[in-house]
């Protein structure tokens, strides 16, 4: 009962927001459903956000320009006011929140999905299991028999931050740990080189762009054993929902526009029914499972004959 009540309240909130946007459309250059704005996006989640923006723009008279970079780069741009809307896999830290408080802006944070960091290997590698404890030891400079090398997307990425935090280190090791510029390059490299393990955002594996589909077909997605666990889990929606996959992370839209602009409208859209269906289809885990309409027939078509 609480689920349906919360769902109804949330739907009512979204409808109210859209109504306000329509009312103010003629008097403002930008409302929650009209105008143009820039959106800073962590490159790890670019495929799902591109889908969300495409559908949002198709429904409303709005244009959202995506600027995808590594986490450190988009935070720098965010604080320099390149854009007031950002998508991250973490909330703002105290220093970042203080920056906006001085401007009398309270960040609006909307959780939109759960993603995962995935380990991948070349298709020729028959071992599809990996222990998180081994990865951490390898990152700490302690050689591991089953890990020849780790390949990351970008030294400034959220993926690197996540793994280095787990390992308790500040920077990537100099030996047998490599980084490129994007998830695309990691997938391509691993598909062409045996023995290397890539570290990428799960979204890139479920929604590969056309130029890397052939590379995705030549990799294995590894099942991961968490610290203190005896079981290996693949990064699936079900395992994310049950909390059994050890490398899950939440995605947030952080809006510091300070006004009722496209940031508010887009966040409401992604967290609403249509946006959550897009998340579900993408292979990530929505924050609320979209409802399903079931039609019950009391008689068959043949009864009318």
From TrEMBL:
Residues 35-273 form the PBP domain. SUPFAM superfamilies: Periplasmic binding protein-like II. The lineage of its organism: Bacteria, Pseudomonadati, Bacteroidota, Flavobacteriia, Flavobacteriales. This is Phosphate ABC transporter substrate-binding protein, PhoT family. Gene3D superfamilies: Periplasmic binding protein-like II. Residues 1-25 form the signal peptide. Keywords: Signal. The keyword Cell membrane does not apply. It holds the Pfam family PBP_like_2.
